[in-house]
Structure formats: structure tokens, C-alpha cells
TrEMBL record:
InterPro entries, per the entry: BCHF (IPR009905)
Protein name: 2-oxoglutarate synthase
Membrane-spanning parts: 27-51, 57-81, 101-121, 127-146
GO molecular function, one term: hydro-lyase activity
Amino acid sequence: MPAGPQLVRALYTPEERARRDATKWTLVQGILAPVQFLVFLISLGLVVRYLLTGDGFAVATTSIVIKTLVLYTIMVTGAIWEREVFGCYLFAPAFFWEDVFSFLVLTLHTAYLVMLFAGLGDPRQQMLVALAAYASYVINATQFVLKLRAARRDERIAALSAANAAGSRA
């Protein structure tokens, strides 16, 4: 027997969408996310260069530290954004799994910093931890991009539904 139409909960309630659109933290996240991605791409290139050639350890290391600081910044501002929109700093139902995975990303980036500043592991091992952190970041960034696309889809569906409802009353 075929299943009936499935109702999918929209990512944002109308009230949450209004708060999202009204808060300055939405713009902050919209700026920081591509900045972080650019820093990631540059740093990834420098890390891979070091691993392939043995050249550029200092610049690769500096780039990882910068990437990690940008990550910490976007995590703090993201928590503030989540509080403004959903009423809690982390683990709002709409972003629960993204937040869970973000902690893995933070853990791996922080593990790199601990290794670096405590002198743990050799440079290659440190760079491999950075690559693991970067792989987790790519997965997490993909989660957020897919969530953003879902939100845009929800908004298009809501707009079409409103237009259809208005048209049927005419």
C-alpha cells in the first residue's frame, strides 16, 4: 500500500525565520563561513605542499593556527546565532547533528594545537592530524551547506503555498 504524502518539518518556524532574518549574527555567519573556507583552501594547499616536499613547515603551521582561530570564532558566533534564532546556544533540534559533528571538528583542530604547542609528535604527524581535522571540517561544512539548501527549499515551498492559497481565494 503506497504511503501518503509525508510531512517534513520546515527547518525554521515562521517566528524562527523572522528572528534569523532580524539578527546581525546571520550576516556575521554569512561572512565568516566563506572566509573560513578560503583560509581552509589556502592552508590545505600549504599543508599538502609541506607533506609532499618537506618545504614550508612554518607557513603551513601558521596557516593551521589561523584556520583554527577562524574556526573557534565561527563556533562562538554560531552559538550566539543559534541562541538568537532558536533560544539555545547549541543543539537546537534543527542543527543538532551539525553541532554534534562540530565538536569532532573542534576536537581535532584543538588536538593539533596541543601537539604543536606541547611538542608532541613530529612535524609530519602534526600535519596528518591537521589533515584529519580538515577532513572533518569538509564533512561538517557539507552538513551546513545541505541544511542551508534545505532552508531555501522550504522557503520556496512556503512561498508557492502562500501564492496558491491566495490564488484559490481570488
